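stage 2 :: seqdesign
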């Protein structure tokens, strides 16, 4: 295992020693691709050897969205879970590794049921299997939102550690998935069609990175201004793109000035809270709800009044078909047409297809073929 580690370190040092400019761009891109390959091989080895123990805890997804609490031991994750869901289901302790498995709970907010998953603390080397780390990170990979929980006293150092561990298992935070499509061909070399001006990578770097992945004949269509790292992410596959923000806990123990100093140094959106006293918990709930970009749909059964009491909660960007799937697994098959009142249509009661995109507050009638 150390040989992987040594090789990766050696390549990373080479990048550090290289002055990055137009002339070295391609070389650096290649080094990065090599590092990515070594990391993948290292991960494969770990998985195969079973040293991490499975791919995550067996947490059943429930609710409209799931949020994972990730952080080092004793920062207050379990205290926070209990606050958010208003129940004491996860044990709190003043010693490290109190929590030994994933503990899910449901937070109710604005008609939405949001699953919050408390996790064991992670430590440096978690991504390589240390202290149940792989299982913890496995759950994090499946979440719709990550709350990075930091103790206000060690926030900066811990933040960096967590970012590294997450990145190692292919989790990309607060990044759009790069819009890149690659199709293998039989001949003709690498054909590049960029529909955006590329400011971070040039054609020759693209080609050599693709060659590093044994792609000699292929067409690549690029619709976002990608970097070399993002191209490698696409080639590696297996990346997940998850929104995240920082929860700075235990602010009851510091002055406002101390808190401000820490906040200024963090380069990710954050909120200071006290999980123990409940300070800023309501604000945090609101932030969670907003980050998940959930929308409310009011269902109006055919020929009846709309139900404005209990909206159906679904993710932003969902279409009528997604609503059907949420209601019953027969709805999509039996779908005839739908009518919508609200922001997503021009006319009230407009007839729409199953592909129609919904917006927050829309009223929806689904008409089934059997009706
Ligand atoms: N002062 C203060 N103490 C807190 C706060 N939140 C948690 N604690 C204390 O910090 C200790 C650790 O809390 P836990 O909630 O068990 O921490 P954890 O992150 O779940 O720890 P592990 O399960 O070991 O990873 C406990 O003694 C808590 O009482 C807070 O906001 N302020
Ligand atoms: Mg805990």
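stage 2 :: out
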């Amino acid at each position: 295992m150390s040989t992987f580690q040594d090789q990766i370190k050696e390549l990373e040092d080479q990048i550090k020693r290289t002055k990055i400019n137009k002339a070295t761009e391609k070389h650096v891109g290649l080094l990065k691709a090599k590092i990515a390959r070594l990391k993948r091989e290292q991960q494969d080895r770990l998985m195969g050897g079973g040293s991490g123990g499975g791919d995550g805890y067996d947490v059943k997804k429930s609710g409209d969205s799931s949020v994972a609490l990730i952080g080092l031991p004793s920062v207050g994750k379990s205290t926070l879970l209990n606050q958010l869901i208003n129940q004491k289901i996860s044990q709190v302790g003043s010693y490290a590794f109190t929590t030994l498995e994933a503990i899910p709970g449901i937070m109710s907010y604005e008609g939405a049921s949001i699953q919050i998953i408390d996790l064991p603390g992670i430590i440096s080397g978690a991504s390589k299997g240390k202290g149940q780390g792989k299982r913890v990170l496995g759950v994090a990979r499946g979440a719709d939102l990550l709350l990075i929980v930091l103790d206000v006293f060690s926030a900066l150092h811990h933040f960096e550690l967590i970012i590294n561990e997450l990145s190692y298992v292919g989790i990309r935070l607060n990044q759009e998935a790069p819009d890149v499509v690659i199709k293998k061909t039989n001949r003709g070399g690498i054909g590049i069609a960029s529909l955006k001006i590329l400011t971070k990578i040039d054609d020759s770097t693209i080609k050599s990175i693709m060659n590093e992945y044994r792609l000699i004949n292929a067409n690549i269509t690029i619709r976002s201004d990608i970097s070399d790292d993002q191209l490698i992410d696409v080639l590696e596959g297996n990346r997940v793109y998850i929104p995240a923000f920082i929860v700075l806990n235990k602010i009851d123990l510091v002055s406002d000035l101390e808190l401000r100093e820490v906040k200024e140094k963090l380069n990710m959106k954050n909120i200071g809270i006290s999980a123990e006293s409940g300070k800023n918990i309501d604000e945090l709930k609101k932030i969670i709800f907003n980050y998940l970009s959930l929308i409310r749909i009011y269902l109006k059964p055919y020929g009846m009044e709309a139900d404005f009491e209990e909206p159906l909660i679904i993710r932003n960007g969902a279409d009528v078909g997604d609503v059907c799937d949420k209601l019953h697994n027969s709805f999509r098959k039996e779908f005839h047409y739908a009518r919508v009142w609200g922001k997503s249509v021009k006319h009230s009661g407009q007839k729409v297809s199953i592909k129609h995109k919904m917006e927050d507050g829309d009223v929806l009638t689904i008409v089934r073929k059997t009706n």
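stage 3 :: structure notes
- The chain has three domains: 2-49+178-236, 65-175+240-291, 294-368.
- Residues 71, 73-79, 92-94, 96-99, 120-121, 249-250, 252-253, 274-276 surround guanosine-5'-triphosphate (ligand 1) (CB under 6 Å).
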